[in-house]
UniProtKB/TrEMBL annotation:
UniProt name for this protein: Potassium channel subfamily K member
Localization of this protein: Membrane
GO cellular component labels: plasma membrane
GO biological process: stabilization of membrane potential
UniProt topology in membrane: Multi-pass membrane protein
Keyword Nuclease set for record: no
Keyword vocabulary terms for this entry: Ion channel, Ion transport, Membrane, Potassium, Potassium channel, Potassium transport, Transmembrane, Transmembrane helix, Transport
Record carries keyword Ion transport: yes
Residues glycosylated per entry: N106
Family note: Belongs to the two pore domain potassium channel (TC 1.A.1.8) family.
InterPro entries in UniProt: 2pore_dom_K_chnl, 2pore_dom_K_chnl_TASK, K_chnl_dom
Length: 343
């Protein structure tokens, strides 16, 4: 307990505000619900763990049993092969596939370390997608990859931030012009925002799977899954473009997909930013209690907007907002201003 205040001990930020507060006034800060946030985070992870375990574990078990059956059937049919030799052949096939050296019917997949393939690898590196299907093998390339990513990842974040800012400016400009024309800014903002969201969904998530279905031979659901996993930089590597050795890929294919990744990540970053703003700063009223030495409490309320800025709600005389969570309540005696969510 803070001596003489009747409130819990201040965190570092509250102690700083208390030192900077005018003489005769003590500031109280509401403690953030960190433990509640951590509990929700762990609960969400537990939910994902349980669902993936229930859905994937039986399929993985069946796949392992099927592979073992096929392996022993092959050994029975070809007695010249023994178990260790077959295992060695399987390991060689896996390594060759990872290196892009698989040859089927005299056709090969698009060269991974040719110019186009190297460009796509560079994009997947600085965007932190990291499919895992390709990695440098020479020591020189590995060392260069470290420094390349060290500079490229911050540069990519700057570019994505700038592209997202330009997209946001374009949406706001359209909303302003439409609001002036319609004499209804609220309706214009809603219409332009909805149009931008739908256009992004079509351009970056709903239409690209059609291209992947045509070029890669995937189903639409598989293409949509690849699109989201790629743009969210999860990048499992189970689906990667240009990996089917039986298909001939046009030269423009990977370059076009690289540009789609760049602009799609900027758009998805805006959507995730909106979701974060909704989760971290939900709109609602927060009480402010002006506590004086006389023991009387005067409730005041304020609202918080989606971008985290405080907005006055039902303002009343004698209580004004000086900062995000600081209320100034003029009383003649020593005061404690305490603002926070209702618990």
């Amino acid at each position: 307990m803070a001596p003489g205040s009747g409130l819990p001990a201040f965190p570092a930020e509250c102690r700083r505000r208390a030192r900077e507060a005018p003489e005769g006034r003590v500031w109280g800060c509401a403690m953030p619900s960190t433990w509640l946030l951590l509990l929700a985070y762990l609960t969400y992870l537990a939910l994902g763990t349980g669902v993936f375990w229930l859905l994937e574990s039986p399929a993985a078990h069946d796949s392992s049993e099927r592979f073992q059956r096929d392996k022993w059937a092959l050994l029975r049919n070809f007695t010249c092969l023994d178990g260790p030799a077959l295992d060695s052949l399987i390991r060689g096939v896996i390594q060759a596939y990872q290196n892009g050296d698989i040859v089927l019917d005299n056709t090969t997949s698009m060269g991974r370390w040719e110019f186009v393939g190297s460009f796509f690898f560079s994009v997947s590196t600085i965007t932190t997608i990291g499919y895992g299907n390709l990695s440098p093998r020479t020591m020189g390339a590995r060392l260069f990859c470290i420094f390349f990513a060290l500079v490229g990842i911050p540069l990519n974040l700057v570019v994505l931030n700038r592209l997202g800012h330009l997209m946001q400016q374009g949406v706001h400009s359209c909303a302003r012009m439409l609001g002036v024309t319609w004499k209804d800014p609220a309706k214009a903002r809603w219409l332009v925002g909805s149009s931008a969201l739908l256009s992004g969904l079509l351009l970056f998530l709903l239409l690209p799977p059609l291209l992947f279905s045509h070029v890669e031979g995937w189903s639409y659901v598989e293409g949509f899954y690849f699109s989201f996993i790629t743009l969210s930089t999860v990048g499992f590597g189970d689906y990667v473009i240009g990996m089917n050795p039986s298909r001939n890929y046009p030269l423009w294919y990977k370059n076009t997909v690289s540009l789609w990744i760049l602009f799609g990540m900027a758009w998805l970053a805006l959507i995730i930013k909106l979701i974060l703003s909704l989760l971290e700063a939900p709109r609602g009223s927060y009480p402010c209690y002006c506590h004086s030495s006389k023991g009387n409490f005067k409730p005041r309320s304020w609202s918080q907007s989606l971008d985290g800025e405080a907005e006055p709600h039902s303002p009343q005389p004698g209580c004004s907002l000086e900062g995000p969570v600081i209320m100034n309540c003029p009383e003649p005696s020593v005061q404690v201003s305490h603002c926070g969510k209702d618990s």
